[in-house]
Write the structure tokens for this entry.
Amino acid sequence: MTDSLTLQHLPMAAGNPPSGLPGLGLPRLLPGSGTVPVDLRAHLAEHGPLRPAGGRNGLLHEVAAAGLTGRGGAAFPVARKLAAAAQARPAPVVAGNGAEGEPASSKDRSLLWISPHLVLDGLQLAAVAAGSRSAVLYVPRSERLHGRLAGAIAERAAAGMDAASVELVTAPDRFLAGEESALVSRLAGGPALPAYRPVRGLPRLAPGRTALVQNVETLAHLALIARYGATWFREAGTEAEPGTMLTTPHLADGRISVTEVPLGASVAGLLGLDGIQGPAEAGTAGPWVPSAFGPVQAVLVGGYHGAWLPAAAAAALPLANAALRPLGAAVGAGVLAALPADRCGLAETARVARYLALESAGQCGPCFNGLPRIAAAVAHLAGPRPDPRARADLERWAGLVAGRGACHHPDGSVRFIRSALRVFAAEAGLHEQGRCSGTDPRPFLPVPTGSPATEEDWT
Amino acid sequence: MTGITSSTALWYASRATGVVTLLLLTTVVLLGILVNRQGRLPGLPGFAVTGLHRNISLLAVVFLAIHVVTAIVDPYVTIGLAAAVLPFASAYKPFWLGLGAISLDLVAALILTSLARARMSRRAWRSIHWLGYAAWPLAVLHSIGSSADARSGLTLGVLVACVLATATALAWRLSRAAREIPRAGRAAAALNRMSARKAGL
């Protein structure tokens, strides 16, 4: 995970920062160079102690002015969640969500590894907003990461700087482990399984006890907003989607990095795509776009619940929901994957579809029956000479599954598969003729092995 | 009794709707068991069974309402409005009508909680929905006890058929529960089934 991490930073014009404020340059969340973890002393030397001016109301006001949204994927306004938490009685349990079940994303664990004190600062601020004295950090199962975070928490306790106690809770290695209701179930001592949640507002941990759940990157942004203010935060990003976000670009040569960019940054810049469209050669599924790391045929935006876009379309887009939503995609948790021209998009989609089906929590019929059936059909489509009716069948089944689960797993999975049917339509046509444009059989998108077999696999 | 007069019309209507209600309630129980065990009806997708269960429940409620209203309005025996809702408050056959009243109250609770389902926790809704299993035998006992003609002929046949069908469905449900796939293995089992089917093509 973090051993292979390479950090890239897009150069930004450095203005003249007002005194006491950091420059406009990126990165904000990760140190300027290298992957060396920032300890407490270095953290305090860089950012100074955490003294939110104006108390709880000042903090809520500043976050609302900053327009910070959740960085876990849903982009829900943080100020609204904090305001709901401030009103809840008794005070909600505050949870930092670093589960990052998405196999293609590594930004949360990178952030936890390199800048744990920004996350822990943010967790304390969320506890202040909620009026809570106890907080939880929900992180992947990794002894190294646990050891490091436990050390950071102990360092802070020794310095006496935290009002709320922080407990580490392990997230199972499951795709849905970070889903909000799954996290809440895990905190309540049960398996990390999503639950049907009819009532809007904060999720309920136990009768009469709610939880405030924020992604760990969101918390890190919170720590910076509390120090430098909303105006500083808005110096990066767009008017509608302010600030920066961590992304996990998968380059066409197979390298994976974690990069912080302002929202609205160009997708082409992140993946090294050239603006010029390559030729649609005979025997290939469609036009590809050259990139600094090899030719690219399509871009997966937003991870395994996201959507494929043709490379030429993606190269013209900014990384912002305002531009992506009309195309059926979303920024999500910042996963971007440039599929090389020599891979079969249907084979990649089939591998991921199978993984998504196996990661069903097995609770809702449309999900645990529908997704395997859909995954089997995508595998059929990825093979030689598929039945020409398979594509119509897939569309019909997708319609029967979407919106019919307790959580959004069926919806997100179907969104991903439908986008593949659109973007790789020419490839499917080739397969029906008994051909395939993929020449490199190696898998490109990361897919973990091992599916849940017992209830313990969710704890 | 040689024909239907205006005074016997209500009595007949009450009897007839009672029998139809029992048939419909039995169908609801059978479909409910099928929904609970994710069973299928030939030619229908899984969610259509859920829809059928819900719609026939509402149809049963309509017949139940007519059954109760005609019984109250019928001057042949005096059953007050209170006796229709409050168990054992009737002067006429207090025990057997009381069972019917309890059954009616349980059905009313099921309907009201299902209408408010989006606003309540799933666990609360589910626990109240389990009362459906109690409403049905109460309705059967009420049918046997409160009508003398249910002890012979066609009405007896209907009763026996309802009881046999429900008993069979319950036995099937219990046997399915015993060999249920735990949720951790459900998607994998389905994927194996699908792959086997594809290989067989």
Summary: Chain B has one domain: 6-200.
